[in-house]
What does this fold into?
Amino acid sequence: MIRKHVKADGSASYTAQVRIKRGGKTVFSESKTFERESVAKGWLARRRHELDQPGALERATAPNGTLSDAIDLYTGDVTAIGRTKAQVLRSLKDFPIAEMAMSEIRAHHVVELARQLSGDNRKPQTVQNYLSHLGGIFSIARSAYGYDVDADTVNSAIETTRRLGLTRKSAKRDRRPSADEMDRIMEHFAGIQHRRPASNPMHIICAIAMFSTRRQEELLKMRWDDLDVKHSRILVRDMKHPGAKVGNHTWCDLPPEALRIIETLPKTDARILPYSTDAVSAAFTRACAFLEIQDMHFHDLRHEGVSRLFEMGWNIPRVAGVSGHRSWQSLQRYSHLRQTGDKWSGWDWLDRLAPPPAPGSDHDVPTDEGDELPPKTRKRRSG
It folds into this structure.
């Protein structure tokens, strides 16, 4: 349809309108005004032809929110994606790309974002993390929000930014706490709680983190209802996973030391450790600074816990059963470790936190790779 409009000065304009109906209802309408009728007719013919192509109407009627809108949708449930990731994504709303429609964002726009992030003195590894988090939005934007986007947009941009030196994968950390460092950390936190009983029991949290190999967010989400004492395991909710985190609940084995400590805790909350991630992170960082322990992160406790299991002679499947790694390839970084025994055997702090179990109790598990797993464990894993 083309409508002619006569202006006050006697000149004319022509408005071409495309309207598509389904079941008697208008499902798409678009119009554009031109100064010449021939141009209006040409646009109308081309637009009709474009909309006749497979999938064109769906793309034309798809929501066309901005990246800022998509970030708000994606970060709506902070507990599902993680606090740090949500903060990173929200910070991207300060950049020009956030005002662009999702359907208009191309790889070169993401590359420009990387340049802007680098210009703010961020390291290539940090820029890589920003883009990786952004890629999570693009990977689900079409199916979750109906946005007309190419899920591979950010991945293509990351490949380019690596070649330009704007991004780089973070080097694998191999920092492990020494026994002396852990003793100092434990003594420090135990002293704080002795003086301030209402403070978080950080010495207990650190010990469980190391022996259970749990990530900080997983550790602080653990619930009493998800604890299976009989089989020495716990259901880890929303476990970190590259493909999906929400609803990614996984049963993980608990080494006997972790279960021993957990069983000594009071059941004052639905959560086993009812403390906030911010408080735990801040307390650990302050303690390391005070004790002059250099380059120590809370996550290094998980690395220590996993390394310990390999040094005790556990094979990859058994370690994965504790750590929750879905890909055994992720554990290849520990392949250089050799069986040297348990570094933490006889650690004074373990017995101070939780008396050792009686010989022959259900908490005893094999420590040599060649030992047979208990029948109940074999049965559970086969399921």
